[in-house]
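Hi F.,

I've been meaning to write this up properly since the lab meeting, where we talked about keeping a consistent format for the predictions we share between groups. The idea is simple: the sequence comes first, exactly as it goes in, then the structure tokens exactly as they come out, then a line or two of notes. No screenshots and no reformatting. I'm using this chain as the first example so we have something concrete to point to.
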Amino acid sequence: MKPIEALMFFIMLASRGFTDGRMTLKNTTLNWRTDAIWIHRSEYPIK
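Output, unedited:
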């Protein structure tokens, strides 16, 4: 990911976490890993 994309992704993730006050750090980390894998696969499709 480009640095700016990583920054925007982090902001999106942070806003998502603050939106749901019940979300724990563990869940945030899990979602970040899931989203990162999804983004990685969308940028570099498995052929």
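Notes:
The CA atoms of residues 9 and 36 lie 9 Å apart.
Residues 3-43 form one domain.

If this format works for you, I'll send the rest the same way.

G.
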